[in-house]
Amino acid sequence: MNVDDTAVMIRDMTIRGAGRIARAGASALSDFAGSYEGRDMRAFRKDIEKAKKKILGSRPTAVSLWNGVHATLRGVEEAKDVGDAVSMIQKNAEEFIANSTRAVELIGRIGSKRIEDGDVIMTHCNSSAALSVIKTAYDQGKHIKVYATESRPWRQGILTVNDLGKAGIDTTMIVDSAVRTVMTEVDRVFVGADTITSHGAVINKIGTSQLALAAYEARVQFYVCSETYKFSPMTLSGDTVAIEERSYEEIVKKGEIPDSVKVYNPVFDVTPAKYVDAIITELGVMSTGSVYDVLIRQLGGKIFQTEE
Ligand code: RUB
């Protein structure tokens, strides 16, 4: 699919979820490179840079998109000609997509070990990584019951309950404000992530931090299911994560409230590391304190941005 259409579909959430948007970005850049007709390397660099900016500008919060795009363009600076650059991009994108898809399966297998027969689970929004854990546990024959939040305003909970319900899992949908009431019945919470900072704070769908607080209060285990490409290298040098705000029309219809009333619609929130029991990744289950080490390894020991 072309870059413009992909950027629009990510922005309007036709393609959504941190993993899916990363794979869509990688795939769009690969298609762009594959259909590039020019042979001038300088022009190619400029054009691919423009395409990259378009994809990255589509949604600001999930670092998965940034990591997916940069993994796809790795090495292009050193390419000797356009043909070389194109094959690098196509190979990188293919690898990124295959690895990220496999990571979700691995997270399912690893995370399912944390679920016991008879568990009551809560999840929020619609995370393929969290659903992989829950569905794998169910496929292993564990009897589980799942509470899934509606996740206003976009109601991604509808996708979640459809998926779980069709899989045959005992699923109950709740409104977001029922989270604290229901938490007393829950054994474990599993949510996804858009970005995880170097000190283990989790950025995920608005309301995630409320689940975390309610779980903390009720002494319920709170797990984040996340591929390691959702770890943010930029946070190592102190960058903060931009929280996307979307249109008021996702909350109220035009004319439903007086023009003088403002509507604030942040669509992600930050859960501090202290409320997270563990992060379930494709590398294994880790504490929030391990994110820093994984990032340093991913960066080959290069930690801080320098002026050079
Ligand atoms: C989706 C959301 C998901 C994470 C992880 O938000 O917050 O929990 O993206 O998803 P939105 P996954 O619907 O606004 O994109 O595990 O599928 O990557």
What does this structure look like?
With 308 residues, this protein is α/β, with parallel strands linked by helices. It folds into two domains: 3-103, Four Helix Bundle (Hemerythrin (Met), subunit A) (Up-down Bundle); 113-298, Translation initiation factor eif-2b, domain 2 (Rossmann fold, 3-Layer(aba) Sandwich), CATH 3.40.50.10470. Helix content is 42%, strand content 13%. A seven-stranded mixed sheet has the order 3-2-1-4-7-9-10, with helices on both faces. Strands 5-6-8 form a three-stranded antiparallel sheet, covered by helices on one side. Ribulose-1,5-diphosphate (RUB) binds at residues 16-19, 125, 127-129, 154, 156, 192-194, 204-205, 267.
List the helices and strands and how they pair.
Blueprint: H1 3-11, H2 18-34, H3 41-56, H4 63-72, H5 82-112, E1 120-123, H6 128-139, E2 145-149, H7 157-166, E3 170-174, H8 179-183, E4 188-191, E5 195-196, E6 202-205, H9 208-218, E7 221-225, E8 268-271, E9 278-281, E10 284-286, H10 291-298
Parallel strand pairs: 1-2, 1-4, 2-3, 4-7, 7-9
Antiparallel strand pairs: 5-6, 6-8, 9-10
The protein binds ribulose-1,5-diphosphate.
Q: Give the low-pLDDT segments.
A: none
Number of helices: 10
CATH superfamily of the largest domain: Translation initiation factor eif-2b, domain 2
| Ligands | ribulose-1,5-diphosphate
Per CATH, what is the topology of the largest domain?
Rossmann fold
Shape: globular
Proportion of β residues? 5-15%
CATH class of the largest domain: Alpha Beta
What Rg is obtained from the alpha carbons, in whole angstroms? 20 Å
Order of helices and strands: HHHHHEHEHEHEEEHEEEEH
In the CATH hierarchy, what is the architecture of the largest domain at level 2? Answer: 3-Layer(aba) Sandwich
For the largest beta-sheet, the strand count, sense and barrel status come to: 7 strands, mixed
* Number of β-strand runs: 10
Strand order of the main beta sheet, please? 3-2-1-4-7-9-10
**What integer is the average pLDDT?**
96
Domain count: the total is 2
Task: Tell me roughly what share of residues is in helical segments.
Answer: 40-55%
Distance between the termini: 36 Å
* Estimated structural class: alpha/beta
